[in-house]
Write a structure and sequence with these properties.
There is one protein chain. By secondary structure, the protein is mostly helical. Helix content is 67%, strand content 1%. It has a single domain, classed as Ammonium transporter fold (Orthogonal Bundle). The protein has a two-stranded antiparallel ribbon with strand order 1-2.
């Protein structure tokens, strides 16, 4: 047991937990005022249902000894998890830290289906999804599973978190269907300062997400911290230039989105690449996500808050570029394409493909089965009124700022 490592991981765990309320502000500001509380609740509720199920069963399936595909049941209800060392930190703390990842990964999905999915159906879906999709994929990469054996590099969750959630979001958006007023000019964000606040808090928490994934207060954590500091800056610069080129007016929502895309893209590479590679990775990642977002807006796909473009595309690009920029002299594991190991790019592609296929298939089955018991969508009248009132009996703005009862 190492006291410095334990102190750092206590802080990192709190930082990652903060990311879920931060996501609530980021998502909540992007929707109309009549759906602000419902959207924020879709993030907050994951802290309860996904968090409890993680302790009961998810942690065992992800990190208990098992086979190449799934952990066994030896750690159900946290049996055998105590104050003993897991690496150099208490086992309890390691379990909590990993639980914060499961919580926010499930919450990310909500951005694709806000403003029309029934809250009860959503809660059932993300709870089961965290158990049946997130935990197995986490085991494949971080729990000694087959992707780990293959040598896939995913420092903090490009494949496990972002590709996984992005694909589930795409499937959910298709299964739930479009908002009744999709393409309406009234779909603009109701509170852009909330969006900026959420993006800023996400970046703050992401230092725990990435640097904490070293699991030690070590040079590896410092490397990941530096990459997390620099990569979103590169993304923000390129995103702003793209906005200037396309419309001549860089927007605050665009800046916030660019920052998040940069954070997503550097996540799998954070502990494996040098500072200049981090800036380059962030800059490159801006381009496919930016144009994926522009393309989606012209289609019939109603991914409300562009989870697929930001997390699905951003996570995929980041995972693949990890296979390009990884540097063995820094990470001690493997070089990437630029450092003489083109095979690593193929391994990264295999990991991404596996997550896409598995998450997509299981998410589709889960939604269809849940839909047989609980309607996935709210009634048309409830959607028109707003989900704050109809799903929760509350309003975000009763005095001024636009009442949700007015359908703002």
């Amino acid at each position: 047991m190492n006291q410095a490592d334990t102190a750092w991981m206590l802080i990192a765990t709190a930082l990652v937990l903060l990311m879920t309320p931060a996501l609530a502000f980021f998502y909540g500001g992007l929707v109309r005022s009549k759906n602000a509380l419902n959207t924020m609740m879709m993030s907050f509720i994951s802290l309860g249902f996904v968090g409890v199920l993680w302790a009961v069963a998810g942690y065992s399936l992800a990190f208990a000894p098992g086979n190449n595909w799934i952990g066994d049941t030896s750690r159900l209800f946290l049996r055998g998890v105590g104050l003993e060392a897991q690496g150099t930190i208490p086992h309890y703390l390691f379990m909590c830290y990993q639980g914060t990842f499961a919580i926010i990964t499930a919450a990310l999905i909500s951005g694709a289906i806000v403003e029309r999915m029934r809250f009860s159906a959503y809660v059932v879906f993300i709870t089961l999804w965290a158990l049946l999709v997130y935990s197995p994929v986490a085991h494949w990469v971080w729990g000694g599973g087959w992707l780990a054996d293959m040598g896939a590099l995913d420092f903090a969750g490009g494949t496990v978190v972002h590709v996984n959630a992005g694909v589930a979001a795409l499937v959910a958006a298709i299964c739930v269907g479009r908002r009744s007023d999709y393409r309406s000019s009234g779909l603009a964000p109701h509170n852009v300062p909330f969006v900026l606040l959420g993006a800023g808090l996400l970046w703050f928490g992401w230092f725990g997400f990435n640097a904490g994934s070293a699991l030690t207060a070590s040079p590896s954590a410092g490397l990941a911290f530096t990459a997390t500091f620099l990569a979103p800056m590169g993304t923000l610069v390129v995103w702003t230039l793209l906005d200037y080129t396309r419309s001549g007016r860089p927007t605050a929502v665009g800046a916030a989105t660019g920052i998040v895309v940069g954070l997503v893209a550097i996540t799998p590479a954070a502990g494996f690449v040098g500072p200049m590679s981090a800036i380059a990775l962030g800059a490159i990642a801006a381009v496919p996500s930016y144009f994926a977002l522009q393309w989606r807006a012209k289609t019939s796909l109603d991914d409300s808050l562009d989870v697929v473009a930001a997390h699905g595309v951003g996570g995929t690009v980041g995972a693949l570029l990890t296979g390009v920029f990884a540097q063995k002299s820094l990470n001690g594991l493997a070089d990437g394409l630029l450092f003489g190991n083109p095979a690593q790019l193929g391994i990264q592609a295999t990991a991404v493909g596996a997550a896409i296929v598995y998450s997509g298939a299981v998410s589709f089955v889960l939604l269809k089965v849940i839909g047989l018991v609980i309607p996935l969508r709210v009634e048309a009248a409830d959607e028109s009124t707003g989900l704050d009132v109809t799903q929760h009996g509350e309003e975000a703005y009763v005095h001024g700022g636009g009442s949700s009862m007015q359908g703002a």
